[in-house]
Every structure is written in structure tokens, then in C-alpha cells.
Specification:
By secondary structure, the protein is of the alpha/beta class. The chain is built from twelve helices and eleven strands. A nine-stranded mixed sheet has the order 3-2-4-7-1-8-11-10-9, sandwiched between helices. Helix 6 crosses helix 9. The protein is globular, with a radius of gyration of 19 Å. This is Acetyl-CoA acetyltransferase.
Length: 396
């Protein structure tokens, strides 16, 4: 197996993903986010075949005043290693990197990553409202008074890419069309009916140039991933998926400090992950990429090295991202069609592992000759391209 199991810290043990699961997802009105955490955690442990007593590490973010202490208490866990890193959608790839390092170094044996959110149900029930910003203190005080929303920041970045490289609205729309085509094969996806480029372009404008279908959906749901030292693999009920290399990077918080709107932090986290894994982007079989907006998919593909800078538009418009394409991307339908309950990065890891294990059912990717995928990458993005975490995974 190429590469190492960690992001570069000293360690001797290989690290595998041995359990994955989603909670109930989509429209889940009669539950709490704590319950979704518990449901996903139980299912991931059951998937692994290991008992909860082996879990000595726990990572969670986004819920409770003292995350992850509150969630661990709810789950009845008493971990001796914890992580509450919160960097938006990239949180879970960054946490997976930290967990892999801790396990490799012997600071933990089995680390459970868990997320759950009732974002959609809370809006419908009036328990929360949409927000214009994440706060008005610190550096953000210089942007918030002008109504500079998260969506508008992504929209500005997309417009800059269009200006610099001639990327078209039709090319961005094709990302949404291909995500929906993949979702058609996922019975758990919220939206499965086919859409066309014209459907995307003719929708209501949310933030120029994004129409509604350029933007992720809002759903409920949770996910869990269990990582463990190689010593535990023989006791698991599923084939291991090895953590080969990881990378993380924080870029900026204020737009004025972002050197180039056409380069995301995945340009750094991806390079580090591939170098540490000892593999090249052109060896990857499937890619799970955070897709809160269509532009996010396009620019991340460039920055991970799947195509040259500025060529993302021509790369995505040729149908390469579908299950039978050259590089299947967001094989479950992604945040644009499957589910997006908030910080979706953990769902990327779950889907990547499913594809490598060969248990993705109707949406299972097969490479030339009918072989199962051997290498996958999961790359999460946080904030408005503020942070990135990338994990390269290999089939056992």
C-alpha cells in the first residue's frame, strides 16, 4: 500500500476506517440533533463489528456549549482523546487527520467522529432563522455592515473565475446536472429527478451568478466514521479502508485577505495529502468534494490537481463527474442533490469508504475492466474557502 497512514507526525501504526454510517437523512421532523448523533454512532459501530468499549477517542463539533463533551456524555462515552476543531465544512477531514495521527502515535486506539443536524426541520418549525453572517466582531466587523453574506462571497469568487478564465454559467450549471444524475442512483438522496443546464440557468437568482440549483439543498441528517489502529482490523466485520495521507490548510477569514479568489485552500491541503500518501491525482478513482455551490466543485478539482488552473470549466462540462465518467465526483449526489445538513464533510468520508468497499449499491463505481475503485479522495471546504481538509483513502 503506497504512502503512510498519517499526515506526517511520527507514528508506527497504520490507521483504517473500519465503520461508517448515516443517520436518517433528508426530511426528519420528529427528532433532535443529539438523537441523530446517537443513531449514526450506533450504526457505525454496528458496521464495524466492534463494541463501544474500544472507543477511547471522540471528535465532534457544531452541537452543544462544550462540544464534544456534551455529545460524548449523551452517547455514554468517556474518551481519553478528544477533538472539537471547528472549521466549517472541512472540520471532519481535519478531524480525521488529527485522529489518524493520534492513533498512529498510540495516543488513541479507536476514534469516533460524529455529526448530526436538524437544520431543515429547525427552519420549518421556526426554531431558527437564516443568518446574514457568522458574527460582527473581530475581522468580520469590516464586512458585516455591508450585508456581505456567505453566499455572496462564493458568488464573487465564481465571478472572478469567470472573468479570469472565461468559465461560463453553462459549465457551472453542468456540475449541478451531473450531481443530480448521480443522485438518481441513490435512494436516500432528497432530489433524484433529472435536471438540465437550462433548468439550472432559468431558476431564481440567489446571488449573481448563482441561481437556486447552483446552491446546496438544506436537509436534516447525521453521519459517523470510526477510525482504528491496524490491530483492530482483524476483529472487524468489514474490509478496512486505509488512511494514506492527509492535509489541512487555513487561508483567510476576510475577503480582503484572500490573495486570489480563483485559488482555494485545497491547493495546499491537497498537495500535502497526495505527497504524504505517495500517490498522484491521476491515480484517484473517485473524488468526494464539498459542494455547497457549483463553483466550489469546479475550483477544488483544479486545486487538487485533476486539471490545470483555469481549465475546470472545460473539465466538468464533458460529463466526467458522473458515475461512468473519467472521474466520478460526489457519487451520492453531493450537497447539491443528496443531503446537506450543515457541515457536510463527514458525509464525504462515508461515501468515499462505501465506494472503496464496493457496497454503494446502485451507484457503485466500476473502473475499466469492472474493477472496484482503489483510491479515493475526500476534500472538505469550510467558511467561504477559509479552510480545507483533504484525506486520501485506499482500499484494503
Amino acid at each position: 500500500m503506497p504512502g503512510s497512514s498519517t499526515s506526517g507526525a511520527a507514528g508506527t501504526r497504520k490507521v483504517a476506517v473500519v465503520g461508517i454510517a448515516l443517520s436518517d437523512c433528508g426530511r426528519v421532523d420528529e427528532t433532535t440533533p443529539y438523537a441523530l448523533h446517537a443513531q449514526a454512532a450506533r450504526r457505525a459501530l454496528a458496521d464495524s463489528g466492534l463494541g463501544r468499549e474500544v472507543v477511547d477517542g471522540f471528535a465532534s463539533a457544531g452541537l452543544g456549549t462544550l462540544a464534544p463533551a456534551e455529545v460524548a456524555e449523551y452517547l455514554g462515552l468517556r474518551p481519553t482523546w478528544v477533538d472539537s476543531t471547528s472549521v466549517g465544512g472541512s472540520t471532519w477531514e481535519v478531524m480525521a487527520a488529527h485522529a489518524a495521527d493520534a492513533i498512529a502515535a498510540g495516543h488513541a486506539n479507536a476514534v469516533l467522529l460524529v455529526y448530526g443536524s436538524t437544520a431543515r426541520a429547525d427552519i420549518k418549525a421556526g426554531r431558527r432563522t437564516s443568518n446574514l453572517s457568522f458574527g460582527a466582531r473581530g475581522p468580520l466587523q469590516f464586512e458585516v455592515p455591508y450585508g456581505h453574506t456567505l453566499i455572496s462571497k462564493y458568488a464573487m469568487a465564481a465571478r472572478r473565475h469567470m472573468h479570469e478564465y472565461g468559465t461560463t454559467l453553462e459549465q457551472l450549471a453542468s456540475v449541478a446536472v451531473q450531481a443530480r444524475a448521480n443522485a438518481a442512483h441513490n435512494p436516500d438522496a432528497m432530489f433524484r429527478d433529472p435536471i438540465t443546464v437550462d433548468d439550472v440557468l432559468s431558476g431564481p437568482v440567489i446571488a449573481d451568478p448563482f441561481t437556486k440549483l447552483h446552491c446546496c439543498i438544506r436537509s436534516d441528517g447525521g453521519a459517523a466514521v470510526l477510525l482504528a489502529a491496524e490491530d483492530y482490523v482483524r476483529d472487524c466485520r468489514t474490509a478496512p479502508v486505509w488512511v494514506l495521507g492527509t492535509g489541512e490548510h487555513v487561508s483567510h477569514t476576510t475577503m480582503s485577505e484572500w490573495p486570489d479568489f480563483t485559488v482555494s485552500p485545497a491547493a495546499v491541503s491537497g498537495r500535502l495529502a497526495f505527497e504524504r500518501a505517495g500517490v498522484r491525482p491521476d491515480e484517484v478513482d473517485v473524488a468526494e468534494i464539498y459542494d455547497a455551490f457549483t463553483y466550489m466543485t469546479l475550483v477544488t478539482l483544479e486545486d487538487l490537481g485533476f486539471c490545470a488552473k483555469g481549465e475546470g470549466g472545460s473539465f466538468v462540462e464533458k460529463g466526467r463527474l458522473t458515475l461512468t465518467g473519467d472521474l466520478p465526483v460526489n457519487t451520492d449526489g453531493g450537497g447539491l442533490s443528496a443531503q446537506h445538513p450543515g457541515m457536510r464533510g463527514l458525509f464525504l468520508l462515508v461515501e468515499a469508504v462505501r465506494q472503496l468497499r464496493g457496497d454503494a449499491d446502485e451507484r457503485q463505481v466500476r473502473r475499466p475492466g469492472g474493477r472496484l475503485p482503489q483510491l479515493a479522495v475526500a476534500s472538505g471546504t469550510g467558511g467561504w474557502f477559509c479552510s480545507s481538509g483533504t484525506v486520501v483513502l485506499g482500499r484494503g
